[in-house]
Amino acid sequence: MTLDVAWADRWTRLSAERIAAARDELTELDRQIGDGDHGENLDRGFRAVVAKLDGSAGEEQPPGQIGDVLKLVATTLMSSVGGASGPLYGTAYLRAAKVTGLQELDAHGVVALLEGALEGITARGKAQVGEKTMVDAWQPAVDAAEAAADAGASTADVLAAAAAAARQGAAATVPLVATKGRASYLGERSAGHQDPGATSTAILLEAARDAATA
Amino acid sequence: MSGEAAPVGARARVALVLVSHSQRLAEGAVELSAQMAPGVLLLAAGGTDDGGLGTSYDRVSAALEEALGVADGVVVLADLGSAVMTVESVLDMEDGFDGRVRLADAPFVEGSVAAAVTAHGGGDVAEVLASAEHAGGTFAVAAGPPAGDGPTTEPTAPAAGAARAVVTLRNPLGLHARPAAVLARLVAGFDATVAIDGVNGASVLELMKLGATGGQELTVTGEGPQAADAVRAVVEAVEGGFGEV
Prior knowledge:
The complex is a heterodimer of chains A (214) and B (245).
Chain A: H1 5-33, H2 38-56, H3 66-80, H4 85-98, H5 107-125, H6 135-150, H7 155-171, H8 196-213
Helix pairs in contact in A: 1-2, 1-3, 1-8, 2-3, 3-4, 4-5, 5-6, 5-7, 6-7, 6-8, 7-8
Chain B: E1 14-20, H1 23-36, E2 42-46, H2 57-68, E3 73-78, H3 81-93, E4 101-103, H4 108-120, H5 125-143, E5 163-168, H6 177-188, E6 193-196, E7 199-200, H7 204-209, E8 217-223, H8 227-239
Parallel strand pairs in B: 1-2, 1-3, 3-4
Antiparallel strand pairs in B: 5-8, 6-7, 6-8
Helix pairs in contact in B: 1-4, 4-5
């Protein structure tokens, strides 16, 4: 099954639902090692995204391509999130949109989308694997997606592999000591807590997986 | 909304956009810098779209567009990590506004003041940027070892053709921010290198760092084509009490 703009729309709306449901959990994770607003900020951002999607439905040119939806998510998150996750996820969606100037995505198209997102996050945040950031969920997700696509998996299975790897990557941030972002101010005390950005990444990729099988 | 412009007057070539997580902090930095550098376009881009704590892509890009409509170039100062990221995102999306916008790696308040005074003196984007980025070092030195170890101009014996004078500071409050800015702007207007008690007379931050108090004697030295005029002007300004006495 190939993925089209309807999938991108489902993914975005499902992301908003899941982030809203995880809002308190994300905020609590961020309270432990950050400034305690990750859930609230992302929830506000995705609610603004859905409002724009709804608003664009009556316009002459609603998003016609996957890339249009991703671009709308990007610009809206950048302007409404407030904290660091705004420009980070905004740049991720923006770079993901660049590689999806297609009507439909096959398995390798999904990998290219995820690679674009990871590239955007590392360009903006300058973080690497092991620094207790969202990169610790994105990098394994991209690796797993690539391996699955190379093995001939379907788009849904590529996304499932990415989501599972992101979830594991998020869990693996628990013992790490943060060296980037607000959590790095805590130094050694940041160990023992799961990174909120890696956790929201897992949530977003699980939404992508579930939107592909809906 | 993006803050108020400084009073209309002769416009400097370079404008500043001050990006903070707090709308009030951005506006406060504009207020402070404007007092020291009238005529420089200073725009505040603080807070989220609904006025909460955070930064807004839309507010930053709107301020940049407004500034570019008036000035040749813009130097941006940002206060914390995600404000920097928001500015970088805007510059990415707009391809850096053709290279006319530069983000300073500088402390927010000190950098804003230093950059504004340099912009007032007619500096170009590179000079205003350098002024902002030097501001942190100036303050680190001020808080650390005694003066003399830092990147300040060492007092030098007057060379042939150079000018030198000693003048007593009359202001009871000493060489605080406003008179320091007046002095720095005055010095920047001459084709001369002027040192006041050994520090760069064109740098408002170095002048403030002197911590000169009322009644203190200041040694003014100048070198360059307009050294004599510059030193004379500085002496007159100090003796005039900067309009405060």
